[in-house]
């Protein structure tokens, strides 16, 4: 097993920034655009998809470019960066190298058939572990149904990247898609899940209420379409963003109070829980 580079214990406690706050929904003009589940148009992450198209076997630089783009993508850290001065683009270079070295190495092993993938349930477990560690409200917890919902959205908009091995070659009629993801796919999906939990009112729903909530929203959407004679394509709804504001403040305070060692240990725990080798 490869050993990760040594990290200075004096790095700022921003090790969780790549996984603490996610994407803001936006329309084509870049404005906030909250919409209903089932009709939501997520940010496409076009650069992530492009880097996935450029991957070359045994060319580590192409994998590193993809990893860079995943952390660079507009997952919704902008508000946290502006307000608190923290975010994925603020991660110290030494730590950034450690994270991406592990991810790139694990991704290449996975695609070579010698490394393990990451299950949707592992993403659930890590998400809930972080919610617990940060002492966040119940609606920030997730389950496999929510994670799978977000994965299907990403497959739609990043088919080259997120569609890789999504369907097993020998799959039979009636069988579900492959639950396993590659390490970089899992990272992209984890950012989306956590991000929506932290900044998207339509996703700030406790897991036990998720299916009932989706059914209610879908019924609402269908009724609006019916009343409009089928003309409604997307519904813009004004949501209360008080949860997002509260979470942003809580997370900012918690991360700021975290020592470098605490942050590094939590990061290592998170990567280990996903099975990302050192």
List the helices and strands and how they pair.
Blueprint: H1 46-53, H2 60-72, H3 78-84, H4 93-112, E1 118-119, H5 120-133, H6 144-157, H7 159-162, E2 180-181, H8 183-199, H9 210-227, H10 242-257, H11 260-273
Antiparallel strand pairs: 1-2
Explain how this protein is built:
With 278 residues, the chain is mostly helical. The protein has one domain. Strands 1-2 form a two-stranded antiparallel ribbon. The chain is globular and about 55 Å long. The relative contact order is 0.21.
Summarize the structure.
The chain has helices at residues 46-53, 60-72, 78-84, 93-112, 120-133, 144-157, 159-162, 183-199, 210-227, 242-257, 260-273; strands at residues 118-119, 180-181. It is mainly alpha-helical. The chain has one domain (17-273).
| Secondary-structure-derived class | mainly alpha
What kind of sheet is the major sheet?
2 strands, antiparallel
End-to-end distance, in Å?
A: 7 Å
The gross shape turns out to be: globular
Label this structure with key terms.
disordered N terminus, two-stranded antiparallel sheet, 11 helices, mainly alpha, 278 residues
């Amino acid at each position: 097993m490869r050993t990760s580079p040594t990290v200075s214990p004096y790095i700022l406690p921003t090790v969780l920034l790549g996984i603490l706050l996610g994407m803001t929904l936006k329309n084509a003009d870049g404005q906030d655009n909250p919409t209903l589940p089932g009709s939501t148009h997520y940010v496409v992450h076009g650069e992530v998809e492009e880097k996935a198209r450029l991957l070359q076997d045994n060319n580590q630089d192409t994998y590193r470019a993809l990893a860079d783009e995943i952390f660079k993508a507009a997952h919704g850290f902008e508000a946290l960066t502006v307000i608190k001065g923290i975010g994925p683009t603020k991660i110290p270079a030494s730590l950034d190298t450690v994270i991406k070295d592990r991810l790139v190495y694990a991704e290449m092993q996975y695609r070579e058939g010698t490394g393990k993938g990451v299950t949707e349930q592992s993403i659930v477990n890590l998400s809930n572990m972080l919610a617990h560690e940060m002492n966040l409200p119940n609606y920030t917890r997730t389950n496999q149904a929510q994670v799978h919902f977000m994965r299907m959205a990403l497959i739609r908009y990043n088919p080259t990247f997120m569609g890789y091995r999504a369907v097993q070659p020998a799959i039979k009629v009636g069988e579900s898609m492959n639950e396993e993801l590659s390490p970089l796919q899992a990272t992209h999906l984890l950012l989306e899940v956590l991000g929506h939990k932290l900044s998207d009112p339509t996703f700030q729903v406790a897991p036990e209420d998720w299916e009932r909530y989706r059914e209610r929203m879908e019924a609402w959407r269908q009724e609006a379409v019916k009343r409009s004679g089928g003309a409604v394509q997307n519904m813009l709804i004004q949501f209360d963003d008080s949860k997002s504001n509260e979470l942003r403040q809580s997370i900012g305070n918690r991360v700021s109070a975290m020592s470098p060692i605490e942050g590094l240990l939590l990061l290592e725990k998170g990567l280990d829980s996903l099975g990302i080798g050192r």
